[in-house]
Amino acid sequence: xxxxxxxxxxxxxxxxxxxxxxxxxxxxxxxxxxxxxxxxxxxxxxxxxxxxxxxxxxxxxxxxxxxxxxxxxxxxxxxxxxxxxxxxxxxxxxxxxxxxxxxxxxxxxxxxxxxxxxxxxxxxxxxxxxxxxxxxxxxxxxxxxxxxxxxxxxxxxxxxxxxxxxxxxxxxxxxxxxxxxxxxxxxxxxxxxxxxxxxxxxxxxxxxxxxxxxxxxxxxxxxxxxxxxxxxxxxxxxxxxxxxxxxxxxxxxxxxxxxxxxxxxxxxxxxxxxxxxxxxxxxxxxxxxxxxxxxxxxxxxxx
Length: 303
What we know:
Elements: H1 3-15, H2 18-25, H3 29-43, E1 48-51, E2 54-57, H4 59-83, E3 91-97, H5 99-104, H6 106-116, E4 120-126, E5 140-144, E6 153-160, E7 162-166, H7 168-174, E8 187-191, H8 199-206, E9 210-216, H9 219-227, E10 233-236, E11 245-249, E12 256-262, H10 270-285, E13 294-296, E14 301-302
Parallel strand pairs: 3-4, 3-5, 8-9
Antiparallel strand pairs: 1-2, 5-12, 6-12, 6-13, 6-14, 7-10, 7-11
Helix pairs in contact: 1-2, 1-3, 1-4, 2-3, 6-10
């Protein structure tokens, strides 16, 4: 059986459509259509029920999906093992990072690396979602989490507190405050979507904070709204920027922890080890993290 056909089948089964599967598989819509039809013909059964452009797995398709995932894991393991023999300081390294760190820190931190290791190409995948490092969607991940997934290896970089921030004009208009309890019912820019369930925002609401009529499901956007004078925002301290002033810290919010992670099979690849080392060193030396509510963490490796 053709592995490419199975790979495309998995993309369709996981996205539910040909259009969404094409970019994931790195082929055209027509190629996806052709491979799915050929696979069904070879197997002599329908793998998908089709309705209004959506592809839902049949019972036979579900059985094949389970087998195809096992095969995919085997190919991914081979790919990582072979890549792990690469001892050269050259080649591509994909780093996935939240937008705040991708916009502000990585452009500065990669300057020395590019000068010292010109053979290493870096691709930044800007995302707040957890990418699967097992399938090489990314080689290195910067992620904020209480604890990283058990199957990854890396180190803690920072412990990041939370504070209320606002523009200078907003602070002059609304007056100073040093705690949410000083101003019961104080209005804060509203978290939306899944962000509303974050422990920091639940703690703010429990402390008497109230939500404004404008908000966002993205922390960077909340920071931008606050900087443009739309109100005060509860933000992690790494998001401080020009145009924002720290009103007061909010210790009731559990601090964020920033991790630098990779797959254990990739940790000894020279180019990946060099990039991880360079990033860890840059975070530890940056004076920006030695003020406010952000504290460098010991560079303790995790298994």
